[in-house]
Design brief:
Rossmann fold, 15 strands, single chain, TIM Barrel, 3-methyladenine DNA Glycosylase II, Chain A, domain 3, 6-stranded parallel sheet, 3-stranded mixed sheet
Length: 373
């Protein structure tokens, strides 16, 4: 990790109460402001004429990338600079690749299956990242691919999965040394070649390697259920904890709604959206879901942060021109926002506000009771 603003500041004139304190020659109002900008690489270290050689050496070392980034046809491998996600964030997700031997029988069917495989998780379509070919024939496909020989010659360190204990120790040692020493011999991204016949053992080992600390996994076998599991795990591990998961703010349609269909509303927090969307997809009636912009915050968080207000909801509806598209004049809001019912109705003249459920799983029962009324 790079130096923090406070770590840099203690080497500057202001921290030492020395001459030239807060001289502004760097273009910043104070030494502290310069230190904070330098920690974020928003200013060059040479901007301050009074930086010591000690700080220059320390800054150069701290700024050195511990692990190289290798780009294979747009697939980035490596480039990590922390051991733990909460320290900053992980950079490039563990690449999941499939090895296809074109000298083996039935390779075309395996290739077709890999190319067509995809799953959708939290507003993201997940596919196999890379196909690696070995054998005499290298087919011309649009899917990201590389030959095994090219992969091994691009600077990646290969580990054969000969034993879980040995492999896991080598992965942890490589990453730990890369981060702590920044020595060249530890800087290569690491690929583990996953072999074996037991899918359960392969999945368990691979899950550990994604967490600690494989940059790439190359599988001899391709199993859709296993890849779905590993991709879901990987998505959780490589999500930036500082950035809320969010979906696009717009009107979503379920089961071919018309102008008389039910209308629901929620924020653009991804987990809330997919919980509600799953219920609406399984309803016996069509519906709309209005998703309001809320910086990826959940319902109550958005309300408390003033990201879900009556004026904002009114503006969203007007921007979407929703009133002209439907005859139904009832919008069902989350039960957690029941206290906003009157405020929303005062601001939104075209619609009546109906208080819905607190939990998404209760939507089905709520709809059944509503339709029977």
């Amino acid at each position: 990790m790079g130096l923090s603003g406070l770590q840099i500041f203690k080497y500057l004139p202001a921290a030492k109460k020395a001459e030239n304190t807060n001289c502004k020659q760097c273009g910043c109002p104070t030494c502290m402001a310069y230190a904070m900008k330098l920690s974020k690489c928003q200013v060059d270290i040479s901007a301050c004429p009074f930086v010591s050689d000690e700080l220059k050496d320390l800054f150069e070392y701290s700024s050195k990338q511990p692990q190289k980034t290798i780009d294979i046809g747009g697939v980035k491998i490596g480039g990590e600079n922390v051991l733990y996600r909460h320290e900053k964030t992980f950079i490039n997700k563990t690449v999941l690749a499939v090895l296809i031997d074109t000298d083996a029988k039935g390779w075309q069917k395996k290739l077709e299956t890999v190319e067509n495989f995809e799953i959708k998780r939290v507003n993201e379509v997940l596919k196999v990242d890379l196909i690696v070919f070995k054998g005499k024939e290298i087919p011309d496909i649009t899917f990201n691919h590389v030959s095994l020989g090219e992969l091994k010659s691009c600077g990646i360190k290969f580990i054969e999965n000969n034993g879980f204990k040995t492999t896991s120790k080598e992965l942890i040692d490589m990453r730990t040394n890369a981060i702590k020493t920044k020595e060249e011999k530890f800087s290569a991204p690491v690929c583990v070649h996953i072999t074996g016949a037991d899918d359960n053992k392969i999945c368990a080992k691979s899950a550990f390697y994604i967490c600690k600390y494989a940059n790439m996994l190359l599988f001899d076998k391709f199993d859709e259920a296993m890849f779905s599991t590993l991709m879901t795990l990987r998505q959780n591990i490589f999500t930036d904890p500082q950035k809320p998961l969010q979906v696009e703010s717009k009107i979503y349609e379920f089961n071919n709604p018309d102008e008389n269909s039910l209308i629901f509303m929620t924020t653009n927090f991804a987990l809330t959206f997919f919980a509600v969307a799953n219920e609406l997809e399984n309803l016996p009636v069509p519906s709309y879901l209005i998703v309001t912009p809320a910086d990826g915050m959940s319902v109550l968080t958005a309300w408390s942060a003033e990201k879900f207000t009556a004026k904002m909801v009114s503006k969203t509806l007007k921007n979407l021109d929703f009133a002209s598209k439907v005859k139904n004049r009832k919008i069902i809001i989350p039960g957690l926002l029941a206290h906003m019912k009157e405020e929303l109705e005062e601001e939104i003249e075209d619609f009546e506000i109906v208080v819905g459920t607190v939990d998404a799983y209760a939507i089905s029962d709520f709809v059944n009771k509503t339709l029977c009324m």
